[in-house]
């Protein structure tokens, strides 16, 4: 998951701290779980509702039963530590996708797909009839780091574009998502933020600092 405090992704390991009422047949219950972000050490608390067995909630990866509802209740207000180098037009959509994560992964993933496509069109200058084609063109660019290309390309498989063509043709459509798809989509967008905005701005600042030193020494400046 992605920490709602600091925005860093980590492997979730929820601990059940309280059980609420269980329905009359003893199979459905409500509970409170918590996890700790290893990056910022802040707690995350959520309320879960779904199938229980021996007073414990069944695992999400059990194909037969899935928790009906998982809602983060703390932190209530999500503050994301996003770089100031990211333009507000992208940052606002990313934060909105983050906020939607606990309420509606489908809506969060749809917003992330639309944001991914906008980045490819506006920043990478890639045109195409669909997101899949745009991703293919992006990944064919030899100047793009291989790790980033592999991450971006994986969204087509993780999102199962073949089974859900609307994700490819109409990126903002709110439809069913695969397990982990919403989180992965946010990670991909964050990686593109780093490539398009954060790294270039960091290099420019270093270049400016070096030019100040070179100027003071009477040496030619870097272009």
Automatic annotation (TrEMBL):
The lineage of its organism: Bacteria, Bacillati, Chloroflexota, Anaerolineae, Anaerolineales. This is Uncharacterized protein DUF4145. InterPro entries: DUF4145 (IPR025285). Residues 96-188 form the DUF4145 domain. It comes from the Bacteria.
């Amino acid at each position: 998951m992605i920490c709602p405090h600091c925005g860093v992704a980590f492997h979730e390991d929820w601990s059940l701290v309280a059980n609420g009422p269980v329905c009359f047949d003893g199979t459905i219950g409500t509970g409170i779980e918590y996890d700790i972000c290893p990056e910022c050490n802040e707690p995350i608390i959520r309320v879960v509702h779904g199938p229980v067995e021996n007073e414990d909630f069944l695992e999400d990866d059990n194909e037969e039963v899935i928790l009906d509802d998982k809602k983060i209740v703390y932190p209530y207000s999500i503050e994301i530590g996003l770089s100031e180098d990211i333009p507000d037009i992208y940052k606002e959509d990313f934060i909105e996708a983050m906020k939607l994560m606990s309420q509606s992964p489908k809506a969060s993933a749809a917003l992330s797909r639309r944001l991914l496509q906008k980045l490819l069109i506006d920043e990478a200058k890639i045109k195409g009839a669909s997101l899949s084609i745009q991703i293919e063109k992006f990944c064919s660019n030899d100047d793009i780091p291989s790790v980033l290309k592999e991450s971006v390309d994986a969204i087509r498989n993780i999102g199962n574009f073949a089974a859900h063509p609307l994700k490819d043709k109409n990126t903002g459509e709110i439809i069913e998502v695969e397990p982990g798809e919403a989180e992965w989509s946010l990670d991909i967008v964050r990686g593109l933020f780093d490539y398009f905005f954060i790294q270039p701005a960091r290099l420019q600042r270093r270049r400016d600092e070096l030019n100040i030193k070179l100027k003071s020494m009477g040496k030619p400046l870097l272009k």
